[in-house]
Amino acid sequence: MNDQIPIETYQLGTTKCPVCGFNISVYLHVYRAPYGERVAFITSKCDNCGFKYSTVLTLTTDLRYNCLRLIVEKPEDLNTILYIGEDAEVHIPALNIKLSSEQLAIGSIVTVDAILFYIIEHVKNICTEGTTDTKNCDYVEELESILQKGEVKHRLEIIVKSENGVGIIRSYREKNYEVC
After folding, report:
1. Labelling 70: which of 17, 63, 90, 157 has CA 20 to 30 A away?
2. 119, 42: one domain
3. How open is the CA angle 133-154-46, to the nearest 5 degrees?
4. What's the angle, vertex CA 156, arms to CA 161 and CA 66, rounded to 5?
5. Crossing angle, helix 112-128 and helix 134-148, to 10 degrees?
6. Based on the domain organization, do 100 and 166 belong to the same domain?
7. pLDDT tens for residues 101-113?
8. In which domain, by residue range, is 134 found?
9. Are residues 48 and 75 located together in one domain of the fold?
10. How many CA atoms lie within 13 Å of 136's alpha carbon, on the beta-carbon side?
11. pLDDT confidence of residue 133
12. HSE (CB half, 13 Å, CA atoms) of 21?
């Protein structure tokens, strides 16, 4: 067997184990097959009770847009997996904030949940530097608390733009995104 298997691994975030409620990490493993085909394996394992989960996705998508509006209304919306071009701009109207994918240090394959946590960390850093915008600081604290529980309490929009394309790799609910 070849020891040079072309697999890249990314930690997508954490979630609650459906069996025991313990926090478990979720990983994305991207395999680059011959002829440019890519396949992803999403895995998680609970160290507490032994629960295991995995699924396989193909990453070839014909649907690439320059702008997508993601609508987060239900917990499954947080698990939406995106392909984001290198030059992406992420805008959250509720926070009146626009950040580049470079500022957030996110990769090209990311979940909505991960985008939100990167933005939360960015805003929290600004808040600790003594910003006077306490509205955003309070909102981000509440949002972080809700997301850590894997919940969604308020409708949230995330707009992602990229000249190099934005695409949905996997969505777990119909109509949780639209082209803008």
Report:
1. 17
2. no
3. 105
4. 15
5. 140
6. yes
7. 887 777 777 889 8
8. 65-179
9. no
10. 20
11. 65
12. 1
Residues for the chain: how many in total?
180
Closest CA to 65 of 175, 165, 170: 165
The pLDDT value recorded for residue 159 is 95
Contact 114, 13 (CB under 8 A): yes
Is residue 69 domain-shared with residue 146, that is, in the same domain? Answer: yes
54 and 102 assigned to the same domain: no
Q: Are 93 and 159 in contact (CB under 8 A)?
A: yes
4 backbone dihedrals φ, ψ, rounded to 5°: -100, 50
| Rounded mean pLDDT for each run of 10 residues along the chain, 180 residues in total | 65 85 88 66 89 74 77 91 84 88 78 89 82 75 86 91 84 87
Our measurement of the distance from residue 145's CA atom to the centroid of its chain's CA atoms, rounded to an integer in Å, reads 17
The pTM assigned to this predicted structure is 0.65
Residue 2 belongs to a domain: no
Contact call for residues 58 and 33 (beta carbons, < 8 A): no
Domain-embedded: residue 1: no
Tell me, yes or no, whether 29 and 112 share the same domain: no
Number of domains in the chain: 2
| pLDDT confidence of residue 57 | 67
Say if strands 65-72 and 109-111 run parallel, antiparallel, or are unpaired: unpaired
Cα torsion 126, 132, 137, 139: sign: negative
